[in-house]
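Narrative of activities, Objective 1.

The group set out to show that a structural description can be obtained from nothing but a protein's sequence at a throughput compatible with the screening campaign. Below is one input-output pair from the validation batch, recorded exactly as produced.
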Amino acid sequence: MTTFLKTLLNRRKTSVLFPSYFNLSTRSLCAKPLKSEESNIKQNDLASVTVQDEELDKLYKTIEFECRSNDRAVLRSYTQFATMAANELGIQIGKCWSPRKAHHERYTLLRSIHVHKRCRVQYEVRTWFRFIHFHKLTGSTAETFLEYVQRNLPEGVALKVTKVLLENIPEGVSSHMTSKIA
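Output recorded for this entry:
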């Protein structure tokens, strides 16, 4: 499992380093530039790589998983898998909890179609929930982790992901705050 995660991370890091004219999906359609143009392109590519490096990665304060399932044992094993994967990537795990009781939905139907209204059948669907919080993630780590966890989602388990993104205070607000303080 760890080697698979590390190869995913390495692929994401190296995909940024390809030059702009080297497009994997249209590689056969791209023409190779002339030698005089190659030096200009290499300088432009180095500049674009440094600009990409200077761009800040997104920071997430928390990512919350809400898992739902009809089978409690499958849900428990999936949360154990997700926390093990987070530990391998060095992600901080917060609360991992579930409500004590399942959510019950009961449906009452008539046994016969036309008559005998007293004879009814009740069906019940139980849905178990499990919540997991992950703290202080970067955008690239979050994408890799979510892709890995969602690909290994077992049958009968639904996953809802909620992300809380950290952002800078807007300039208008920060300038207004500094003028009031001074």
